[in-house]
Amino acid sequence: MPKILSCLVLLASIFVSPAAFSVQDQPPTYGYRIVHTYPHDPKAFTQGLIYLNGYLYESTGLEGQSSLRKVDLQTGKVLQRYDLAPDIFGEGLTNWKNTLVQLTWKAQTGFVYDRAGFHLLRTFHYTGEGWGLTQDGVHLIMSDGSSSLRFWNPQNFQEVRRIVVTDGGVEVHDLNELEYIHGQIYANVWQTDLIAIISPQSGHVTGWIDLTGLRPASTQSDSNAVLNGIAFDAAHNRLFVTGKLWPEIFEIQLVRKPSRTNAPHK
Q1: For the chain, which ranges sit under pLDDT 50?
Q2: Which of 15, 86, 97, 249 is 20 to 30 A removed from 7 (C-alpha atoms)?
């Protein structure tokens, strides 16, 4: 995310089979089928996205434009908004209990908000860059643009452990926006059309999602308008994806591709 330069009914097998693959096996690759298309603010530089209780919550980036938003899925209307200070670049977002937790890119500062009113409750600090953020019900899980994922204690934001993400022994770098889905971590790989499905225990890639062709035609000429946004409606098994500055959010169904000989290492 060196930024400026830079529904779904999921098939049960997708969430059962990835964890069974060993390091020696080639993880499966999935394509997609578009189930539904929803409007999205084309000026939103999407950095974090979650679906919760019928609404999307979104963190947007760029200095002077970063915000926290509550969005109506059907209309794309921003129902609630909190603007960050003009020198802050907003990043990953997740929920924890009745709060929302938001990262920043280089400020090494995170924010905790009351989810109902977007009132800033506290700040916390971490080392390095902040990129993506999700949670597994026990820990917050954070990416920093490398091949590592950090697991934090959600009470004090101290690192508990970290994993290095690999596919066939090769490290997968540029891990970006994150979502925790059925026991696996889904991670956008920055500046690609790929989402890695990752075992939170081993760090092994257990599957790939190839979203080639999904990017809206209106964004093709903008190098910053890359895939970056994964949200999951656990109650109805719906998967949503979008990108920075995309005018649409897509609800997709995953479709397994034929076996391949080489994993899409990035």
Answers
A1: 1-24, 261-262, 266
A2: 97
Is 263 part of any domain? no
**Does the residue 4 lie in any domain?**
no
Amino acid identity of residue 233, one-letter, is D
> Cβ-count burial of 245 within 10 angstroms (0-12 exposed, 13-18 middle, 19+ buried)?
buried
Distance CA(266)–CA(116), nearest Å, equals 39
189 burial via Cβ count (<10 Å: 0-12, 13-18, 19+) = buried
Give me the domain span that covers residue 25: 12-256
Q: What is the CATH number of the domain that holds 153?
A: 2.120.10.30
pLDDT in tens, 145-204: 999 999 999 999 999 999 999 999 999 999 999 999 999 999 999 999 999 999 999 999
Number of domains in the chain: 1
Evaluate whether residue 35 is within a structural domain.
yes
pTM score above 0.85: yes
